Amino acid sequence: MCIAVPAEIIEIKEGNVAVVDFGNLKQEIRVDLIDANIGDFVLVHVGFAIQKIDRDEALETRELFKQCYEAIGEEAFPA
User: Fold this and answer.
1) C-beta separation of 53 from 40 below 8 A
2) Are 18 and 11 in contact (CB under 8 A)?
3) How confident is the model at residue 15 (pLDDT cuts 50, 70, 90)?
4) Burial class (CB in 10 A: 0-12, 13-18, 19+), 18
5) Residue 79's pLDDT is what?
6) What is the Cα–Cα distance from 6 to 59, expressed in whole angstroms?
7) Gap between the Cα atoms of 56 and 18, Å rounded
């Protein structure tokens, strides 16, 4: 099973690299596959932004992931 995780683009660097925020985790990803801007929410799969998504949908999905992790007793977004 493959899962794409929502993240917000907070910085765009040279070479189609962006820094995204998954909640409490920031990571560099590639944005070769979409036209992305700072502030956009994207779905990230294996280090690539694969699709832009609506901010509300992204935040709702992030909350659902958090609830799933809490239900199994693990921290979803470690500090």
Assistant:
1) no
2) yes
3) very high
4) buried
5) 55
6) 8
7) 21
DSSP 24-56: S-EEEEE-TTS---TT-EEEEETTEEEEEE-HH
Higher pLDDT, 34 or 68: 34
Q: Which two tokens stand for residue 2?
A: 């493959």
Whether residue 6 contacts residue 62, with contact meaning beta carbons closer than 8 Å, is answered with yes
pLDDT digits (tens, 9 = 90+) for 37-76: 999 999 999 999 999 999 999 999 999 988 888 888 866 5
Task: Please name the amino acid found at residue 59.
Answer: L
Q: What is the DSSP string of 3-18?
A: --EEEEEEEEETTTEE
Can you tell me whether residue 63 is helix, strand or coil? Answer: helix
pLDDT at residue number 30: 98
Sign of CA dihedral 27, 43, 39, 14: positive
| Distance in Å from the first CA to the final CA of the chain | 26
